[in-house]
Design a protein that fits this description.
The chain is α+β, with helices and mostly antiparallel strands. Helix content is about 35%, strand content about 25%. It is built from eleven helices and 24 strands. It has a four-stranded mixed β-sheet. The longest helix is centred in the middle third of the chain and has 27 residues. The chain starts with a helix and ends with a strand.
Length: about 400
């Protein structure tokens, strides 16, 4: 009940933001505009108003969905003629007073220093719930296409990995050798980044190309030489520079010949992936789909927990929302409790994984949009993983 109340509160109150669209997905979504510097945005009786520097004002007026765009620099200069010590908080209070609004809802990540100063200056601010804009959870057709584009950039990265592994040979010491030198995780990541850039995507920090026990460390980016016959987890989540929307996909590879244990591990992760996707539809609860995957692995005898202080098995959530943030609402269970039912046009990843030092890690991840009677893949790439 509390979450519902928070959502209604967010929707009904005037809101105030001060952030860079590059750093804040909420600001980018609200403004429909991108720039590097933070600026002011607020609502007043249904109107959207921005105050931004002269550097960005022309673009903002042309590209954004604001009803009014004010010159923040000019407003600050006017105030400093009367009060030389005036700063951003004083300008904000002056601007919003013109629209006769004295109470706003701000997002949880609103700058703390400005929040304190605004309240001292008499502006009433309340912190909103999460997600701050509940409307962001339901994607439009345009947004779905943006996410598809992000996943196409991910696929370009996988193709680069596959091409390198096919071209590579295994040397006498058991390492993978590419173009006369030992293949490393770093070489794979550079190739992935170049391929994604060519497809319009920028890879944020954390791109994963990890083999062997590093791949069993779930979010380890990977480093150093890649051995033959070891599982290689490649998690690629580029952001399309033109729109700000992400793709997010994972494939697992192996150069050489897999062991029976590795083949079973990959096959079972793929079965879990397929079963979870088959359960996703409007009205289902993410936490129940997650629990189904937990039970699936448990019945097959896979141990989950800690061994010698290291997490093993299926120890993370089944999936998360994707959009202007790489991780956003909703989620498919795990440490975050997904109590609410999935709704049509929500977007989630489906990414079961198993991780065991000595065997390696395997994760398979795709992105789907929830539909009334099922779901639709927003990502598409082959699952062929063993490359001789």
């Amino acid at each position: 009940m509390k979450k519902t109340t928070e959502k209604k509160k967010n929707e009904q109150r005037d809101i105030l933001l001060f952030a860079s669209p590059y750093a804040s997905a909420d600001m980018r979504w609200f403004a429909h505009f991108a720039c590097g510097d933070p600026f002011l945005a607020f609502t007043a009786r249904g109107k959207r108003i921005a105050a931004i520097t002269a550097l960005e004002i022309v673009r903002c007026r042309k590209e954004s969905n604001f009803d009014e765009v004010l010159d923040m620099g000019a407003e600050l200069a006017k105030m400093r003629e009367k009060s030389p010590e005036a700063g951003i908080p004083e300008v904000i209070v002056e601007l919003v007073s013109r629209y006769k609004v004295d109470s706003f809802l701000v997002p949880p990540d609103f700058p703390a220093g400005i929040f304190v100063m605004l309240t001292k200056l008499g502006l009433k601010l309340d912190v909103g719930g999460t997600p701050f804009f509940p409307q962001r959870v339901i994607k439009t057709e345009e947004e779905l296409n943006f996410i598809r584009q992000g996943n196409r950039a991910s696929c370009a990265g996988f193709k680069a990995v596959e091409a390198i592994l096919k071209e590579s040979v295994i040397d006498k010491k058991g390492f993978v050798n590419w173009r006369g030198k030992t293949l490393t995780s770093e070489i794979l990541r550079v190739a992935i980044e170049h391929a994604c850039l060519d497809a319009g995507g920028i890879n944020v920090e954390g791109l994963i190309a990890a083999s062997g026990d590093q791949g069993a460390d779930c979010h380890c980016s990977g480093f150093g030489p890649i051995r033959a016959n070891s599982l290689i987890v490649c998690d690629i989540f580029p952001r399309i520079s033109a729109t700000g929307y992400y793709g997010d996909m994972t494939r697992t590879y192996l150069k050489g010949k897999a062991s029976p244990e590795q083949r079973k591990l990959v096959a079972d992760v793929k079965k879990a992936h397929d079963e979870a996707i088959a359960k996703i539809k409007a009205g289902e609860r993410g936490v129940e789909i997650y629990r189904g995957t937990v039970e699936f692995f448990k019945k097959l005898g896979y141990e989950t927990g800690f061994k010698n202080g290291v997490p093993i098995g299926f120890f993370h959530g089944l999936g998360h929302g994707v959009g202007l943030d790489i991780h956003e609402a909703p989620n498919l269970g795990g440490r975050s409790f997904a109590a609410e039912a999935l709704r049509e046009n929500m977007v989630v990843t489906v990414e079961p994984g198993l991780y065991y030092p000595g065997i390696g890690g395997c994760r398979i991840e795709d992105v789907v949009v929830v539909k009334k009677d099922g779901c639709e893949l927003l990502s598409k790439h082959p699952y062929k993983w063993e490359i001789a």
